Amino acid sequence: MYYPEPISKLVDSFTKLPGIGPKTAVRLAFFVLDMKEDDVLDFAKSLVNAKRELTHCSVCGHITDKDPCRICDDSDRDGSIICVVQDPRDVIAMEKMKDYRGKYHVLHGAISPMDGIGPEDINVPSLIERLKDEEVEELILATNPNVEGEATAMYISRLVKPSGIRITRIAHGLPVGGDLEYADEVTLSKALEGRRDL
Amino acid sequence: MYIEELTLTNYRNYDKQKVVFDKKINVIIGENAQGKTNLMEAIYVLAFTKSHRTPRDKELIKWDAEYGKIEGRVLKRNQSIPLEVIFSNKGKKAKFNHIEQKRLSEYIGAMNVVMFAPEDLNLVKGSPQERRKFIDMEIGQTQPVYIYHLGQYQRILKERNALLKDLQRKPNADSTMLKVYTDQLIEHASIILERRFQFLQKLRKWAQPIHQGISRGNEQLNIDYDASIDVSEDVNSEKIRIVYEEHFNHIEQKEIDRGTTLVGPHRDDLIFYVNDKNVQTYGSQGQQRTTALSLKLAEIELIFEEVGEYPILLLDDVLSELDDYRQSHLLNTIQGKVQTFVTTTSIDGIAHETISEAEIFTIHEGQLVEER
User: Fold this and answer.
1) Is this complex scored with an ipTM above 0.85?
2) Which of A175, B61, B76, B183 is least surrounded by CB atoms within 10 angstroms?
């Protein structure tokens, strides 16, 4: 490297981030050099704090700075409904909707034997434990509508069904505000499959 | 439908080549290794965005170039539509009417092509995989949903096989996950099988009279679908699903022992019979060739039935291999209604009357010259 060591170290650190290649890393590193010292300190602190202070909630597995997390701790929320998602980002997407008042369970992945991920490698066992302890009436399976997400949902449903808890799967099909004529055949046939009585 | 013009840029051995085609028969004459098959391949790629010869798109780019491009104008339902397929290091793009199509399933079908090349004899002689590829390609051309189900099926199959390998090593592990994958596999398998049965019925309907024609009434062609489960062809996907479920239940332990999925569309095959004899094992070279030809000609009619227009026919180095009678039968069948491309090393082996109407091109080191 032609750069002094502090810069090349910074460049190396940036390249560890997803979506950032060597050129962008150099640009970011030089940008940092021009930043105000306070801003840089703040930046560095938030990086460290995000890592140090955040843990996974012992109940639902969502990322949190206190355990149990705010959602699990909120007594106004309906504990009889649990929405199962693959990723903490899915919780945030659901929360933005502001319509859902139940609780969550974050799996941190989906089952995929090809990648060597079995039910024990994601948060399925803790979900089963949770269903034993808590009074749950409905489980909403909101895993992604692809092969892995679908298999994970079906697996959980098979495990939980005997207990009599109501199990639902989120719908997939036409996007809201979309035109029927622009939908592709696959989405359209999914939408037709999931039609309901009015 | 027919191709009005084709422009190749940095494609295989072509630098830059623009050709305007005749809407009936185009004959391309050239010595070996001048680019005849490359030209046929280019038309095929424009229709399917991939080659029939290689799975590696990179090979399609001229060796010293950064990118390769195939552009064409297709006249379909009296409308001239520009199509474009571009290959580069970053992957490929397909454009319909100058607009990039994100999903290939939305692009494929814009132009329908039927190719008959020497390797198509493998359809009869070769491995079951070749015959499955034939059915899948043909159904996919007219039904994009089929491609989706096939893709999902293959994905689930891989996961299921990985799981079966795991279970093989740990015999006492929980088999709930296997049941999940079995259910998912069956969901797509039953639709795939239903569509294949429907396709086969149409294929038979067209191929049988064509075969009789080519063989001067001496040969009766029959096509059987050799399914890995016992089910009759006229049932719907619901019934097929039930049969699959029973079958999978029955063989679960055997599948775990073997560590792989033993039943499903990926293990099925087509069997061709001429006068009740299996052509693959007992047929002569000539019978195998006639069978392959009948299937290809049936395909043309099938696409016409589904799409409402005849596809474009590519005959790569096969016309001269047929005897006079078969040649004229083939040319009579397509006469005037199907745009046809014929490649050959010499014009001598081809029936005279067709040539008199055809547009003739000669090809030399990637340069195409119109003769008349």
Assistant:
1) no
2) A175
Please name the member of A147, A184, A186 whose beta carbon is closest to the beta carbon of B156: A147
| A184·B159 Cβ contact <8 A | no
Cβ atoms of B56 and B68 closer than 8 Å: no
The single residue listed with the structure tokens 């659901």 is A94
Of A55, A70, A152, A75, nearest to A109 by C-alpha is: A152
B163 has a chain A CB within 8 A of its CB: yes
Domains delineated in chain B: 1-112+309-372 (3.40.50.300), 127-307 (1.20.1050.90)
Q: How far apart are alpha carbons B231 and B229 in whole angstroms?
A: 6
Is B179's CB within 8 Å of A158's CB? yes
Q: Are A158 and B160 in contact (CB < 8 Å)?
A: no
* Short-list B190, B196, B201, B173, CA closest to B247: B190
The rounded Cα A142 to chain-centroid distance in angstroms is 10
Among residues B330, B355, B357, the alpha carbon closest in space to that of B29 is found at: B355
**Of the partner residues A118, A119, A150, the one whose CB lies closest to the CB of residue B184:** A150
Of A148, A85, A35, A139, nearest to B180 by C-alpha is A148
pTM, two decimal places? 0.79
Q: Indicate the average pLDDT of chain A.
A: 90
Q: Which residues of B touch A151 (CB under 8 A)?
A: 156, 159, 177, 180-181, 184
- Burial, B139: exposed, middle or buried (Cβ in 10 Å; 0-12, 13-18, 19+)? buried
> With a cut of 70, which residues of chain B have pLDDT below it?
349, 351-352, 372
Crossing angle of helices A147-160/B144-169, nearest 10°? 60
User: What residues of chain B lie within 8 A of the CB of A148, using their CB?
Assistant: 159
What pLDDT was estimated at residue B192? 95
Q: Which residues in A50-165 belong to E strands, given as ranges?
A: 55-56, 63-64, 78-85, 102-106, 138-141
Contact between B283 and B271 (Cβ < 8 Å): no
pLDDT tens profile B208-250: 999 998 888 899 999 999 998 988 888 888 999 999 999 999 9
Has domain A78-169 been given CATH number 2.60.40.1180? no
pLDDT band at residue A48 under the 50/70/90 scheme: very high
pLDDT at A50 > cutoff 90: no
d(CA B349, CA B335): 18
- B105 and A155 within 8 Å at the Cβ level: the answer is no
- Report the gap between the CA of B159 and the closest CA in chain A (Å): 5
CA dihedral sign, ordered A63, A64, A67, A70: negative
Q: How far apart are CA A172 and CA A149, in angstroms?
A: 13
The crossing angle, in degrees rounded to 10, of helices B176-214 and B324-334 is: 110
